[in-house]
Write a structure and sequence with these properties.
Shape: globular
Radius of gyration: 22 Å
Pfam families: YafT
Structural class: alpha+beta
InterPro entries: YafT
Strand content: 15-25%
Distance between the termini: 43 Å
Number of domains: 1
Order of helices and strands: HHHHEHEEEHEEEEEH
Keywords: Signal
Number of helices: 7
Protein name: Aminopeptidase
Helix content: 25-40%
Amino acid sequence: MNFRSIALLYMSALLLTGCAVHSPIDAKKTGVSGTESNVSKNPSVQLTDKDIFGNETTLAVTEEDIQAALEEDEFHVPLNSKIILVQSGSRAPETLMQQEMSQYYSVATFSGIPDRQKVISCNKEKDENNEAVIAENMNWMQALRYVAAKGHQKAIIVYQDLLQSGKYDPATKTTVWSDYKNEKVTNTTSLRYLVRFTLVDVATGEWASWSPANYEYKVTVPLSDKKINADTIDQQIARLKQNTYASMVKDLANRYQ
């Protein structure tokens, strides 16, 4: 077995066990906190901000750091770039979103369900006194960047989506929104789809986050029906998603090309 094969096996083992060797690109982003602890036995399947942004939300940031970030080049994903598309909380992105993204990029997909079954620590590193040092677990985005680098993808695009239903409150003359949970709807119900995109550069780890304006949709009841059946509402939700995704992805591609 040659040296290249040994190196590839070693890196694969690190990915599977959740342990990472030190990377100069992520020195500041991943070199602060230690092994993640207190992982829930019943974790949410949704990606968290820490999964996506790493430890940037907890870093000790100075004014110099902020000014240095402002001087960095703006984030771009040229049209037809190879990307990895991820939907938070789903094994694969919805077909509608894949179809829309494929009009602008060369799309590969990846699971948006992080594995938090157990906490793993590595004790392979030694300090200057030859004592074992606990290495930091590789976070979700760092591992995905490695996968993307192997596939020569330019960027990772993660989207988090939420369908909400709204009821008009005549007292306040506003629509009160809540998460849609397959409840009964009427012709006074409105629907809206909230989406947040996060784009991550594979080579540098730099990112951009964008939440486009949401689109509201008034549920309609056919004249022949006294109430909306499940098939009708499913069709209207599918139409809402399709129209929303088409508009949002077009805006995203134009914004970051």
